[in-house]
Amino acid sequence: MLVVRKISASITGTSALTFARTLTTGNNLSHNNGGGSKTRGLPNDDYFATIHHISNIVRRDIYLERTLNKMHISKIVNSELVYRVLRSCCNSGVESFRFFNWVRTNHPNYEPTTVEFEELLKILAQNRNWETMWKVAETMKSQNLAISPSVVSFIIEQYGKRGLIDQAVDLFNGIKNFNCPQTTEVYNSLLFALCEVKNFQGAYALIRRMIRKGTVPDKKTYSVLVNAWCSAGKMREAQEFLEEMSKKGFNPPVRGRDLLVGGLLNAGYLESALGLVKKMTKEGFVPDVGTFNCLAEALCNSGQIDFCINLFLDVCRLGFCPDSDTYKIMITVTSKIGRVDEAFKILHRSIEDGHRPFPSLYAPILKALCRMGQFDDAFSFFADMKVKGHPPNRPVYTMLIKMCGRAGRFVEAANHLVEMTELNLLPMSQSFDMVCDGLKNCGKHDLAKRIEQLEISLKGI
């Protein structure tokens, strides 16, 4: 099975290269419905090779229109192809615009949809081609194509990141001319832009206007302003804002103190965030699961692993409900410092909560057992996980083979290597080399020869 896949991949790569060369010679493309989409008129491999080839021309060719004219691709030009090319040229603003114009000019049967127009708007905004972006927007307006709130929000945020707040405000005030409503998402983008330039007074006024207009704030509305205030060291203002919003009946989807913890973490104030969480736990409250996960990662990155584990145990006693990300973080850190018993307890708790162990959840425990020299326990645990958890993936097998090799257990390494191939997981060349060399050094020449033959058969040499 693996040999067939390998040969197939080799043929695919060759056909793609051949097809790209055919395009550059200017030969007409023939329709091939065998395995290809009816709208594409090409087999999938050739179709994506074409997109890759066109994208390279758009990004790198100075005379891209002249080169594209030599490619007779009229039969496969459609909205999907144009969109895919634009997506792959997201860092080439002017070039993407030239390609879009070339398609519209040279292919009368092609009618651009809102999807391509909006993708081009985002590319031009991201690359600061503002004048060209507005030309495209006016073209959409002339064709009665509305711009979605998500694209308007993206452009406003791009203005904010560049400090062009006046342009961001003008776009916000004028979006009705493009048949786009001032949704919560659009308000949040302008709020973000105002916070980027530290205009907190304007941001606060915008929220008051938002409420006055009947638009309901969401989690991002609160978090954007709280994060910005915390980044500027204005925690008191953030607290007062949350209290005021609560009094007015606009309670955030996440509790205020969780937002403050998140804002402090984003601003790099780990100790302040930690102090706030400690105060919460003393009062019998537990943080939101997302807030705790962010705090746990920050604590581990700062080297405070023991404290993180103890904090996890404390909040669990208060009724904290971990999610799969929480378990992954905690199992990884407990295994890393050798507290395997604690890692096992956390794993069993995740199973009791209904989570089926996945590879990145049990791999840290497996690695820790191997590091401690407890290979019998590791193999037993691995066998248990193959039955009760998700099937092991390639990185887990590779790690286990490497750990066996480091301990001189080359027969076990060979067994796991063969097991990989039976599961259609192709081992790395380094794994084959290590196992073969180790078997030869310990006198297992027959087994080493079989492993070498296995590698040759898999590679199709």
UniProtKB/TrEMBL annotation:
Annotated Pfam families: PPR, PPR_2
Record keyword Nucleotide-binding present: no
This protein's UniProt keywords: Repeat
Gene Ontology BP terms: RNA splicing
Ranges of the PPR repeats in the UniProt entry: 183-217, 218-252, 288-322, 323-357, 358-392, 393-427
InterPro entries: BIR6-like, PPR_rpt, TPR-like_helical_dom_sf
SUPFAM superfamilies reported for this sequence: TPR-like
Keyword Repeat found: yes
NCBIfam families, alphabetized: PPR
Protein name from the UniProt record: Pentatricopeptide repeat superfamily protein
Species assigned in the record: Perilla frutescens var. hirtella
